[in-house]
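User: Second chain of the day. Same drill as before.
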Amino acid sequence: MRWASSAFALAAVLFSTHVSADPLQKSEDIVKFFTGQGNLGASRGICVGTEEECKSKNDKNAAPDKTGLDMMINFGLDSAQLDQTARAELDEFAKALKDNRLSTFSFVVEGHTDASGPDRYNQNLSQRRAKSVAAFLTANGVHPDRLEAVGLGKSHPRVANPYDPVNRRVEMRIRTE
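Assistant: Same format as last time:
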């Protein structure tokens, strides 16, 4: 199995309401997950892509280990501002990253948008979203050298409908290279 830039994905799905948000992940659960000690259940795995792409990837790369952890974090339309729920969840993530057991991990913080708006604008908005998350983590004690914020615009939608609010998100991946 070949990983281009990450071993694990931590997806933060961003939309304006928390109608279907999972319960807040506690920092200890996050630490246990990334150190391989946690068992958060098969439903916590994540694949970014269409249902067919994910099924294909799962069939080809079937492995007993989970490769991702979902955290639900929201961004409103045309916004890079973190709401109160997003701040609470990222606070738990910051606590986890400051734990000695995760001190060797570095993350790529990838910002995404839906397809609303011009490409250049979406690219800039996705970069602002990634920087917003990285700035929050840094302000909460995570060393900035452990975080790289990148904007990917609308190029990697999470769901097939490119205008779906679910595509307004930030994904955090453990950097392996």
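The two ends are 15 Å apart (CA to CA).

User: Great, on to the next one.
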